[in-house]
């Protein structure tokens, strides 16, 4: 199967026709939606946040970010801003009247927001495009470095980013992850369905926060369901399905146990398990 | 483009990164629009400490909007009768009490200006390099010619 980024630059590949075909395909909608939910679960947001969507396209992920916890979006509804290099893709997003703000921008040129703007960032099926430089003045390494450098600065301390992408090969996977680490991120790679044709690669990035190691093998501890490709940190990892104490999932499980014992339990709502902030 | 976004966007040009004049970008020939949305109190509370209030005031006045108070609202200002909003704690750290918080007029005003008021057409101009970013249908064009990256 040929890769679109080997055929044309992204703004030409995603023209009006392709953008419409892409957005209306129920197969694509389904895949992008499930990857967005996966990325959201890795972001572990507990309350409405400011999120950047890189390569937001027609807003398939954005629509999910705007939903409530009852509709399946943890911590939502979030406020998001998205940018994309294809004006046709953004045109489709405008037609759909998505709630986020949209920009025409090239991730390889950086991220034009002031330091500490976002709580989190998400990018679904986009950053493999950065590995292709369109002109001789640009190099993939230069573009990746401007992107991750800008992204790192635009996230607040303790913020996270999850980038699902389609690396062409191991070399590309490494080039992308290393660029993120070089920018200062704590980084880990997570692979769903490895070795199958449905394999999905997620680059999980954290900003500051002490507990994260600077190298690619040091994945954020305590993050649900992250399997690091490198086995060195396995010991510290949470088993799949095990809930973090005090998390929403943990509370729901406890409630279920209590109910089974015949205890009266408060009804679950969108506030259940939310972090309570200090009241002034 | 929401005015909220203008409080975070900076000039994309490399040489402007270190110049304080590259933020905020200044709207020019702006046509405004109001797009109503549901108020999101927890979001307002979250974003409040991250806002650069003086810059919001500057932009509002440049756009000819009613002038904003000189001091930013506090989180406390966002809810009606905040003192009742006390959650009780039950067994094993379970958060139970749910108090429906009522957004104050301040919260509604903030929502109006930051999330419902936007620039539909016009441009955004960098105060340092004078580069103009066009806004069309609410979408700003931040693509740079190669030599400016
Ligand atoms: C497969 S689509 C994914 C769109 C959207 N994230 C989704 O999940 O539906 C890839 C998107 O990445 C965008 N893209 C490619 N290179 C880009 C770049 N350098 N900067 C910004 N967006 C880019 C394309 O225009 C396209 O909209
Ligand atoms: Zn500038």
Automatic annotation (TrEMBL), chain A:
User: Known InterPro entries for this protein?
Assistant: Bud23-like, Bud23_C, Methyltransf_11, SAM-dependent_MTases_sf
Gene Ontology cellular-component terms for this entry are:
cytoplasm; nucleolus
User: SUPFAM superfamilies under this entry?
Assistant: S-adenosyl-L-methionine-dependent methyltransferases
Tell me where in or outside the cell this protein is found.
Cytoplasm; Nucleus
- Bilayer-spanning residue ranges: none
What's in the keyword line of the UniProt record?
Cytoplasm, Methyltransferase, Nucleus, S-adenosyl-L-methionine, Transferase
Superkingdom of origin: Eukaryota
One GO MF term, please? Answer: rRNA (guanine) methyltransferase activity
One GO-annotated biological process of the protein: rRNA (guanine-N7)-methylation
Q: Where is the Methyltransferase type domain?
A: 52-162
User: Which intervals hold domain 18S rRNA (guanine(1575)-N(7))-methyltransferase Bud23 C-terminal?
Assistant: 224-277
Q: Which family does it belong to?
A: Belongs to the class I-like SAM-binding methyltransferase superfamily. BUD23/WBSCR22 family.
Protein name (Swiss-Prot/TrEMBL): Uncharacterized protein
Q: What is this organism's lineage?
A: Eukaryota, Fungi, Dikarya, Ascomycota, Pezizomycotina
Automatic annotation (TrEMBL), chain B:
InterPro entries of this UniProt entry?
A: Trm112, Trm112-like
Q: Name one GO molecular function term.
A: protein heterodimerization activity
Pfam family, any one: Trm112p
One GO-annotated biological process of the protein = tRNA methylation
* Similarity annotation: Belongs to the TRM112 family.
Know the name of this protein? Answer: Trm112p-domain-containing protein
What organism is this sequence from? Periconia digitata
Query: Lineage of the native species?
Result: Eukaryota, Fungi, Dikarya, Ascomycota, Pezizomycotina
